[in-house]
């Protein structure tokens, strides 16, 4: 039993070393300029170990993207947990997203190379399992739990695209405060207008 645990520990350590090395290289050099021999050398493992854990470089890249997406989602969740209202949770989450994306190399990895290497459908799948799922929950809470799922999905797709476009812009400009302020205004307006429309609809229905 102890030997099996030790083997499992070693396997997990090897996989972790490969992911850490690949993350650093993908961040520094990008996908195309990173070769698997560099990853192996930096991780301090054999090529056989690399291909034991990952089918090829693209599979390794996907694992790094999934890990980063999960980490970003955790950072957003941590900042949103203690929000007093659903609207505050959305605003805290937006700010946390911008902060998370300021990590050097993340914008290129997640918003440029990720879609180019893995394709938009795979990136959407990863998003829906991490931050996208949390965003949909936040939108539903802010707009009302009776909001149709199709409407929540549409809002989430548009808001997510807005966040990503802002992150790309902030990556080439100094500071994020302007974008954070504009997005806060847009989100607040969305929730306020949605609430107003629902109130008007109920009033008309009662007539």
Automatic annotation (TrEMBL):
Residues of the HTH tetR-type domain: 12-72
Keywords, in A-Z order: DNA-binding, Transcription, Transcription regulation
Cross-referenced Pfam families: TetR_C_41, TetR_N
DNA-binding region: 35-54
UniProt cross-references to SUPFAM superfamilies, sorted A to Z: Homeodomain-like (SSF46689)
GO molecular function terms listed in the Swiss-Prot or TrEMBL record: DNA-binding transcription factor activity; transcription cis-regulatory region binding
PANTHER family to which the protein is assigned, alphabetical: HTH-TYPE TRANSCRIPTIONAL REGULATOR BETI, HTH-TYPE TRANSCRIPTIONAL REGULATOR RUTR
Official protein name in the record: TetR/AcrR family transcriptional regulator
């Amino acid at each position: 039993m102890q030997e099996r645990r030790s083997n499992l520990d070693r396997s997990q350590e090897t996989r972790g070393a490969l992911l850490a090395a690949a993350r650093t290289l993908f961040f520094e050099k990008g996908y195309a300029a990173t070769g698997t021999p560099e990853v192996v050398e930096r991780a301090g493992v054999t090529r056989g170990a690399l291909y034991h854990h990952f089918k090829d470089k693209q599979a390794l890249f996907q694992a790094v993207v999934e890990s980063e997406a999960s980490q970003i989602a955790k950072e957003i969740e941590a900042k949103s947990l203690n929000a007093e209202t659903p609207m505050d949770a959305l605003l805290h989450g937006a700010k946390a997203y911008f902060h998370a994306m300021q990590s050097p190399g993340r914008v290129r990895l997640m918003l440029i190379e990720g879609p180019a290497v893995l394709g938009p459908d795979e990136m959407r799948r990863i998003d829906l399992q991490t931050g996208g799922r949390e965003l949909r929950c936040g939108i539903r809470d802010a707009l009302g739990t009776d909001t149709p799922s199709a409407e929540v999905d549409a809002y989430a797709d548009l808001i997510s695209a807005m966040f990503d476009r802002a992150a790309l812009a902030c990556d080439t400009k100094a500071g994020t405060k302007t974008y954070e302020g504009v997005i806060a205004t847009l989100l607040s307006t969305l929730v306020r207008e949605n609430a107003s429309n629902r109130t008007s609809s109920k009033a008309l229905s009662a007539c």
